[in-house]
Amino acid sequence: MNRTVSITINGEVYQQSVPIRMLLVDFIRDVAGLTGTHVACTFEGVCGACTVHLDGEAVKSCLMLAVQADGHRITTVEGLAVDGELSVLQKAFNDHHALQCGFCTSGILMNAAEFLKVNPHPTESEIRSALVGNLCRCTGYAHIVDAIKDAAGRTG
Amino acid sequence: MTSTINMPHDRHPRSSDWVGRQFSRKEDHRLTTGKGQYFADILVPGMLHLVFVRSTHAHARIKRIDFSAARALPGVVAVVTGADIKDQIKSLPQPVVVPALPARYPTFWPLAVDKVKFHGEPVAAVIARDKYVAEDAAELVEVEYEPLPHVRNMETALDPAAPLVHEGWPDNEMFALTFTGGGTAETQAANDAEVDGLIRAADVVVKQRYRVHRCGVTPLETRGALATWDDGDGMTAWITTQRPHIDRLAMSDVLDIPAEKLRVIAPRDQGGGFGVKAPFYREPILVCYMARKLKRPVRWLETREEHLMSVSQERDQMHDLEVAATNDGRIVALRDRGLADNGDGCEGVYWGYLMPFLGAALLPNAYDLPKCDIKIRVACTNKAVLSPARSFGAFPARFALERSIDKIARRVGKDPAEVRRINFIRSLPHVTATGVNYDSGDFLKVWDLLIKTIDLPKFRAEQREARRQGRYVGVGFGVGAELSGVASSVLVPMENQPGYGAATVRLDPRGKVLVFEGDAPGGQGHETTMSQVVAQEFGIHPNDVIVAHGDTGTTPFGSGTIGARSGSYTVSAISIACRFLKKKIARIMAHDLKLDADPSNFVFADGQIVFAKDDNIRKTFREMVERIIMAPLNLPQGESGGLEHTAFFEADAPMICFSAHACFVEVDAKTGQFKITRYVTSEDVGTVINPQIVEAQVQGGVVQGISNALFEQFVYDEAGQQLTSTFENYKLATAADVPSVEVHHEAGTPCPHTPLGSRGLGEGIPGAVPGAVTNAVCDALQPFGIEIDELPLRPDRIWRALKAATEKTAAE
Questions:
Q1: What are the residue ranges in chain B where pLDDT is below 50?
Q2: Which one of B649, B666, B682 terminates a domain?
Q3: Are the Cβ atoms of B220 and A135 closer than 8 angstroms?
């Protein structure tokens, strides 16, 4: 069964008839063609690689259906940079070598971007706690924590 | 605590010295903006989706497969079973993916034929136009099984009464080897007798069984394969792989596709590998076969559940270790009887047993152990085959020996740090009792820096004070003398593949440089590191270098991104190729300027080529390159135009890197809960090319080791059902579970056998961790006399040991 949805992703409206069982992450990747949002677990919400913003709030796009996002605004990692200018957080990830394979990075950036809005001056312990919904296999997290702390300092 | 390495942060350096400089990664822009090009992002028009139906039994005969309902579902293009492909696809083993070692090699196809041998084995596959429909159809395939008695674990596998995993075998032993005492039964028996005598006569003997559970380094990106077929051009296959060139040769053999009609491409970006993407697996074979059969593009994208059911499972070993020492803690002899649980053993290249094989060879670690008796056996069971993971096979062996050394220290009344120091190999090169060559380095220098950094006497004083207050803090050590690349002398017999590093360096008329590498990285930062090496050689900026890798259609043969060979072998090949081209440029420049000069008289720096004897004589790099490529006139006698060279680097003998770890913990003696309060490493990576990337390899490797030792565990129940196929059940360490590591590489020694003095580092890092962490917990709990010899190291295990110790004390 299909239904027509209208979802705004990074400011662009995608109006499309989709199967009602289609996951939001598949809509983002397969319909909108925005492949920066990744899937690393079995759609169980554990890895966090598919994290996007739904009306400004970080959500895991594998745990939602596309039809549930009908009429909502989504921001993906492709929408973080403004006019080609990387965000402070993206720059900090590069400066601190906060990524290796990069597969978890999109989700961590989206989670951290929201986290820093809620908590602009976090402690290391708060940053680490905020990251438990994102798995990273390469970095051991240290440089991710450093980057988020540095980004907080630069924006705060 | 934050990562503490001090590094210059100069992003606009004036000097041309690029090796050793912090330089932010070139890969990051695309990866932080969502523009990475991973396997799942590759689309081909008309692509079909393949979904596997996998065994629900550990061991069962396939009675019947009914796929009529699946086939009838609209959108389904094909359903295929083992019976359909048995006579169409050659079974493995095929020569290119078989080690030159004496083992029993099971015969297998991409889909189970007649019977299934583990929970998760592919039984059938459905191919549909839509991925959701393919999943629906896979659910409709009905398989009738007749369950068979199964082999549960390595302890029971070698029992003569055990069921057989592979029919036709006399028993379940896949591999057995004696690593010490020479090549004949007589010399080995004499060696064993000598070791026996030394153990019997020794002042101190520590004898213990050590058990490391099944866990591994599952990458965040799962596996996948996408193949296209054209009757004229043949096949192009994108495979998540660390070894595209090996996959190509193996695929060519198995599917009888002429090698020139087969191109394998590892995606530009891969979401981690850590060894897991190094074998030649069964699933891509079926994808390629079906693409050719249907003459349509076919893709399989592995689910996490499939991944955790069938790969990323390593470590599963047991070691009965006896270590004999003098009263002052000097080890005089060692005996090990190793045993590994290899699952069904069906896996191209590694066959699961190569990990315990190499682990046993590397068991002596950095210690001077002249007399050893080391034997292992590898058993097949009804589980998934072992697949490689960083600290390839060595993780359990490292754990066993490091635990034994702490026990020796307690028996002789010395600090475990001191006992390690007196047992380190003091002079390199060194060949271990197992025949492994250690080329160079200075273990004591690296170790002493670690001990100085942690201020051990101060910590011991704090520990005594803490115990007076009823707090239990401890320190534990672990070290690793690890592979820095794998020489052909090791890799040809071990994996039937060459070990050399290879690179093509191509200059472009505008003065830019392209590097082609046949290996396939997954996050190690090759584009950055290799660009820095080229920039160093030519005196240009790393941004003027492009590194391409992983495409068998464009790159020189490489055995893959394995064994820490990029920082040792591949960068060395790049250096050699650059130096070859520099000489050519210098010869032509001398000729053009009518200078009586040797190529060594020209300095490449800051985009200029300067005549060292008169620095007014100079040309830009770009003008010389353009002149040689675009205007090849008036060249010296015998010289040709163009600037491109492929170089191969082979070390004369195997090389190593070294790292030493100190882990600090505080344990709650009531609950067994503990926290890692500090983790410090010191390592010898030789000449550091990019300090930030090297440090990150250590950070990540240590946390993988912690995650393996403390959290991750593949669990099979009594029926052989795998219970841990999601990240809910197979727990990886999160940011809140782990510390930042303090990393030091100041005590390194440049490798004398590589052009830059660099060593490869990444592969072995996790190996030192389980010993360090467990030793720390046992050190903290010495007032209770607790020793833990089995992993995972979890609070419940510690609590039980504490309870037993308390009850024992009360009874006494």
A1: 1-14
A2: B649
A3: yes
Taking contacts as CB-CB distances below 8 angstroms, the residues of chain A near B1 are 124
Q: pLDDT tens for residues B131-143?
A: 999 999 999 999 9
Chain A, window 90-149: residues with a beta carbon less than 8 angstroms from a chain B beta carbon = 90, 93-95, 97, 99-106, 109, 124, 127-129, 131-132, 134-146, 149
Reduced to 3 states (helix: H, G, I; strand: E, B; else coil), residue B83 is helix
Cα distance between residue B713 and residue A17, in whole Å: 43
Domain enclosing residue A55, as ranges: 2-79
Closest residue in B to A89 (Cα) is B32
DSSP string, B470-521: T-EEEEEEEEEEEESS--HHHHHHHHSS---EEEEEEE-TTS-EEEEESS--
Helices and strands of chain A, counted as H and E runs = 5, 5
pLDDT of residue A42: 84
If you average pLDDT over every residue of chain A, what do you get?
96
Instruction: Say if B489 falls within a structural domain.
Output: no
Contacts B217 to A, Cβ<8 Å: 137
Chain B's closest residue to A139, CA to CA, is B700
Structural domain of residue B120, as residue ranges? 41-148+223-301
Note whether B197 and B339 are same-domain residues.
Answer: yes
Q: Which residues of B352-376 are buried (b: 16+ CB within 10 A; e: fewer)?
A: bbbbbbbbbbbbbbbbbbebbbbbb
| Partners of B694 in beta bridges | none
Task: Note whether B304 contacts A128, CB cutoff 8 Å.
Answer: no
- Identify the CA nearest to B434 among candidates B381, B384, B370, B480: B370
What the block records as the tokens of B538 is 């030519």
Q: How far is CA B372 from the centre of its chain?
A: 26
Q: Is B333 left (phi over 0), alpha (psi -120 to 50) or beta?
A: beta
Which residues 505-524 on chain B approach chain A with CB closer than 8 angstroms? Answer: 522-524
